[in-house]
Amino acid sequence: MSTTPSPDRPTVSDMRDLLARTGAEIAPGLAEDEFETVEAGYGFRFAADHRLFLSVGLPLGDKWPNWRDGNARNLRTRLAWPAEGVLFDVEHNAFWPAAWGPRPAQLKHALKSARYHLARVPRMVPVYAHRYLPGIAGQWGHPVLSMMQTDIVVYGANLANYIAAEFAGGSIEHAPATVPFWGDLVS
Questions:
Q1: Residue-range domain boundaries for the chain
Q2: 150 closest CA partner among 111, 109, 181
Q3: Tag placement on the chain: N or C end, fewer CB within 10 Å?
Q4: Does residue 81 contact residue 126 with C-beta atoms inside 8 Å?
């Protein structure tokens, strides 16, 4: 048996297998109205594979975001984590991508400009701990990114590969990061 199910378009059966591999307690999957509530309330859309995964079952536990009954403040903090990490590096580590143009001389202006730019990139949505997928509705197969400030690495060629690697001893398959801006930061 392969360690990674159907990479491009996993099936419900593939997702059940992946959920079983997590070792987490699995609650019933999110219903369509729950997805709508979460997406409207937090201002993002789940990618298609992430949506399918969570519709089959909702993994519960300390590092899994609980999209049904989780603490709203905690979920907002987790959603803000990638952008906050970039802002930290702008402030403390002189991070400034060339695509943003010249860096303003004053730190407060640099941070304001960075916030402006970050508000225009795809929102990253937590999968588990500091592993993220882009919140781009309808899209499949983006690599899972491990995000710590601007130290970003591919942690699975797609959601199925990530789950197999993180929880079932599979190997991480590398793939080019496909999400705008964040993919440029992959080391």
A1: 12-185
A2: 181
A3: N
A4: yes
- Which residue's entry shows tokens 């859309």? 45
What global pTM score does this model have? Answer: 0.92
Q: Which of 145, 147, 131, 138 is nearest to 22 (CA)?
A: 131
The contacts of residue 89 (CB under 8 Å, 6+ apart) are 95, 149, 150
Burial 119-157 (b: 16+ CB within 10 A, else e): eebbbbbbbbebbbbbbbeebbbbbbbbbebbebbbbbb
Residue 119, C-beta contacts closer than 8 angstroms, at least 6 positions apart: none
Task: Report the candidate in 147, 144, 146, 121 with the shortest Cα–Cα distance to residue 133.
Answer: 144
Residue 168 to residue 170: CA distance in whole angstroms: 6
pLDDT digits (tens, 9 = 90+) for 61-108: 989 999 999 999 999 999 999 999 999 999 999 999 999 999 999 999
Q: How many other C-beta atoms lie within 10 A of the C-beta of residue 6? A: 13
